[in-house]
Amino acid sequence: RPQSEAESLYRDFFIAKNESIPEVTVKVSCSLDGKQATDKGESKWITNKAVKNDVFHLRHKHDAVLTGKGTIHADNPQYTTRIEEGKHPIKVILSKTGEIDFNLDIFQLRNEPIWIYTQNKNLKTNIEHVEIIELTNCSIENILKDLYQRGIGSVLVEAGPTVTSEFLQSKFTNELILYYAPKIIGGSGSYQFFQSESIFNLSEVPQFEIVNSQMLEQNIKLELRKK
Ligand SMILES: NC(=O)c1ccc[n+]([C@@H]2O[C@H](COP(=O)([O-])OP(=O)(O)OC[C@H]3O[C@@H](n4cnc5c(N)ncnc54)[C@H](OP(=O)(O)O)[C@@H]3O)[C@@H](O)[C@H]2O)c1
Q1: pTM of the predicted model as reported, rounded to 2 decimal places
Q2: What is the distance in A from the centroid of ligand 1 to the CA of 72?
Q3: How many whole angstroms separate alpha carbon 52 and alpha carbon 107?
Q4: Among 41, 22, 30, which Cα is nearest to 167's?
Q5: How far apart are alpha carbons 225 and 214 in whole angstroms?
Q6: Residue 29: its pLDDT value, please?
Q7: How far is CA 188 from the centre of its chain?
Q8: Which residues are bridge partners to 176 per DSSP?
């Protein structure tokens, strides 16, 4: 039976509720060849200002924004939100090793709580708004289940290729937002947003349908849902 529009709209919501995990949206800004950075790790200003603005709005729609240690160390981002009355998401950082530099900018802003997921039993900090959550196994499933228990209903993943690929391979990611800049970066495949150890048959690769597309000046936004 064909799905009604309302059913497909609520599908992800019901899946999330049934599994007791948050709804997950993965966001990637990249070149036409799918690179989030050059092979040397340079990533500032792949996409344009209109994208930056759109991302601010996207953050406000989620309970949490999640990234990896690689990103905070490479870019020193603050994950700021700009709309005063908007929802201010919790910042979530993943680091199995717990080798984190607490002098980074993200730890200096004291407005929203930061939760760090780690497997390092010895990781400690006395920064007031930072909570360290130690899991024996930081699988995507365990992290999402824990976030849900803490009241997080929706997560925006804004990370480098390592964390992005883990989420795209997990069965818990249904929404993908791609911002494409009309440029090609090249190199040898480092920082390409989706990387996997296994090579899938074409008939088994993750497939998406395009739910929406929008020009943001010369960049393009694609909203996709896993089939
Ligand atoms: N254009 C974009 O949209 C965009 C966005 C973000 C980043 N970037 C670029 O991406 C590059 C960084 O790439 P990256 O792949 O290193 O960054 P990343 O995916 O954000 O971070 C990778 C790190 O996250 C931790 N991690 C991964 N999976 C984990 C899990 N399941 N549980 C706990 N910790 C986990 C690991 O830290 P430990 O080693 O400490 O265990 C790992 O080294 C930078 O050049 C940055 O500029 C681009």
Answers
A1: 0.93
A2: 8
A3: 21
A4: 22
A5: 15
A6: 98
A7: 23
A8: 26, 224
